[in-house]
Amino acid sequence: MKYVKQFGIIIAVTSVGELLKYLIPLPIPASIYGLVLLFLLLKSHMVRLEQVKETGMFLIEIMPIMFIPAAAGLVTSWKQIERMLIPLCVIVPLTTCFVMLAAGKTTDCLIERKNHE
Question: 4 and 54 in contact (C-beta within 8 Å)?
Fold first, then answer.
């Protein structure tokens, strides 16, 4: 029953994120609204980590399975992708390296800031 309650909290926050997407006219995905909302609820202690931790960990563990439908969609869209194959083969590694560099530098800055406190 604990997992049903935790999943219910996560679904409720996600639903509010979907609602915010339609109420706020910004080009931000509903999932981002939901993540920010859950973060704010956790930081304000309106939702305690123990109330969503186990289900959250389970959802993170099965996340790779969620990419299977997207990969299947790529297979069915091969004709459209084929025309952009060379630019994609250049852009994807470059942007991946950029994101890894930015994430690493951000983590270094946060660790350094924490060590100075």
Answer: no
Task: Please give the model's pTM, rounded to 2 decimal places.
Answer: 0.65
Those residues with Cβ within 8 angstroms of residue 29's Cβ, 6 or more apart along the chain or in another chain: 21
Tokens of 112: 């350094």
The per-residue DSSP string of the chain comes to -HHHHHHHHHHHHHHHHHHHHHHS-SS--HHHHHHHHHHHHHHTTSS-GGGTHHHHHHHHHTGGGGGHHHHHHHHHTHHHHHTTHHHHHHHHHHHHHHHHHHHHHHHHHHHHHHHH-
Residue 57: per-residue pLDDT: 95
